[in-house]
Backbone:
């Protein structure tokens, strides 16, 4: 697990966010996430999907990642 953490810490600043996340809304529908649900965004990376989850639930989303560098970048985007 340390090798995975070290890998993502190393590439965090260069990790691209330009993926097409349009499928995420459909996935959120399929999973059945609704307003008021508690959500854990595990392996959140830079926090790209966390705001989408917040919009749906209107509640704080718990976001976790092994990489401290990825979490630091998510925090830079005002994702607490």
Residues:
């Amino acid at each position: 697990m340390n090798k995975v953490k070290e890998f993502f810490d190393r590439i965090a600043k260069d990790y691209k966010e330009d993926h097409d996340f349009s499928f995420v809304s459909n996935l959120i529908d399929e999973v059945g996430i609704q307003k008021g649900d508690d959500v854990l965004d595990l392996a959140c990376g830079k926090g790209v999907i966390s705001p989408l989850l917040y919009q749906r639930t209107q509640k704080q989303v718990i976001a976790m990642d092994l990489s401290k560098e990825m979490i630091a970048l998510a925090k830079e985007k005002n994702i607490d």
In short: The mean pLDDT is 87. Residues 27 and 33 are 9 Å apart (CA to CA).
